[in-house]
Amino acid sequence: MIFYQCNCRGIKNKSAELQLHIESHGQKPDVIALQETRGRPRIPGYVTYADPSEEGTAVLARSNVAGTQHLTAQKGCEHTLVDIHARTIGSGGNLFVMSAYCRPLGVAARRGTGTNRDTVPNLSWLARTPDATWRNEDVSLGSDHDILSVTTREPKSRAEIGTARITDLDRMRKCGAEAAESSAEA
């Protein structure tokens, strides 16, 4: 699975650039965790999970990746918690993805300089996943944070798409009427 994590500092004017970045890569991320969204992000092909009472974080999952959002009573840090339903994660169960953002209280938590802006890097962590790689995408979307990509080396989990079954309603009604007539005669 491929995960992106980005503090976008407002997604409204950056969603098209993020979508272009996603489309330009051969493998699209399965899950995208965003912080400082300042609104509800929408990217075609992804389902957006976000707390309706907050506008600070969101988790986007590809439309063929099943997930359930969990709303928690935790206060202090804005967050979005999503349970990714993946049969291939292993015996440990499903994969929980949280996008969290804690606003600084009075004192800036991040200080940049003209020569070194990355004084407090973003954080991504995984548990029970021994084969994972992290890389900086070197794309900032106009923010002072770059997109981070985390790739795990396990089988991909995709929703199974079955064959649609179309019911012939006229035929069903006719068969139902015939069955009712034969039971009435008996």
Automatic annotation (TrEMBL):
It comes from the Eukaryota. This is Endonuclease/exonuclease/phosphatase domain-containing protein. It comes from Haemaphysalis longicornis. The lineage of its organism: Eukaryota, Metazoa, Ecdysozoa, Arthropoda, Chelicerata.
